[in-house]
Amino acid sequence: MSHKAVEINDSNFESIIASGKPVLVDFWAEWCGPCKMIGPVVEELAGEYEGKAIVGKVNVDFNPNTAAKFGIRSIPTLLFFKDGQVVDKQIGAVAKSALAKKLDGVLV
């Protein structure tokens, strides 16, 4: 069942958020403790929302352009996109239920 979160980078970012599906993007880095806490939750959401939404991760160390474009200053930051636009955001590690609720809100 393990559907993994999509690796999003500076070159594929635009095409992914323009896919027509809602997109959850987790901005993270290897050295970030809270990012490691929320990482498995993001992976679980990727599996649970397969076919309904795209769940992906951007490593800010390797993709500075995308992080800068959205003014990402603290991580983890999770952005929720609909029709290519940011419609919601979450900064910091939170419970899976909180992220699922926001993602459900983007699906309607």
Q: What does this entry look like structurally?
A:
The protein is an alpha/beta fold. It has a single domain (6-107), classed as 3-Layer(aba) Sandwich (Glutaredoxin), CATH 3.40.30.10. It has helices at residues 13-17, 33-48, 64-69, 96-107; strands spanning 6-8, 23-28, 54-59, 77-82, 85-91. A five-stranded mixed beta sheet has the order 1-3-2-4-5. Strand 2, helix 2 and strand 3 (54-59) form a beta-alpha-beta unit. The longest helix has 16 residues, at 33-48. The protein is globular, with a radius of gyration of 12 Å. The mean pLDDT is 94.
Keywords:
single chain, Glutaredoxin, 36% helix, 4 helices, alpha/beta, 5-stranded mixed sheet, 108 residues
What's the quick description here?
This protein is α/β, with parallel strands linked by helices and 108 residues long.
- What distance separates the N and C termini? 25 Å
Structurally, the number of domains stands at: 1
Q: Radius of gyration in whole Å, from Cα?
A: 12 Å
> What is the CATH class name?
Alpha Beta
Largest sheet, in brief, is: 5 strands, mixed
Q: Give the H and E element order.
A: EHEHEHEEH
> How many helical stretches?
4
Strand order of the largest sheet: 1-3-2-4-5
The low-confidence parts are none
Mean pLDDT: 94
> Helix- and strand-based class?
alpha/beta
Write the layout of secondary structure elements.
Elements: E1 6-8, H1 13-17, E2 23-28, H2 33-48, E3 54-59, H3 64-69, E4 77-82, E5 85-91, H4 96-107
Parallel strand pairs: 1-3, 2-3
Antiparallel strand pairs: 2-4, 4-5
